[in-house]
Design a protein that fits this description.
With 76 residues, the protein is mostly helical. It has a single domain, classed as Orthogonal Bundle (Arc Repressor Mutant, subunit A).
Length: 76
């Protein structure tokens, strides 16, 4: 998804400046945590009615962009 910037907002007055889905207080990290736990995008949308499947895709795309910008090495 190329237009994640249209769906992700970072505002110091909302959720302590953490990346959220625009117009909500649902943090990108919450979406990613749910995906990591095995929830399907459809189930996440069901659990968080303000979200759409495009919001889920935007969160994934945002995370992918972050990994290209900075690498965190795993512990050995």
């Amino acid at each position: 998804m190329q237009d994640w910037q249209e769906r992700i907002a970072i505002d110091p007055d909302v959720c302590h400046g953490k990346a959220c889905i625009r117009g909500t207080r649902i943090m990108v990290s919450v979406i990613l945590d749910n995906l990591a736990e095995g929830l399907s995008p459809e189930k996440i949308v069901e659990e968080y009615p303000p979200l759409t499947l495009d919001d889920i895709r935007a969160a994934i795309s945002y995370a992918a962009t972050l990994t290209r910008e900075e690498e965190i090495l795993p512990l050995r």
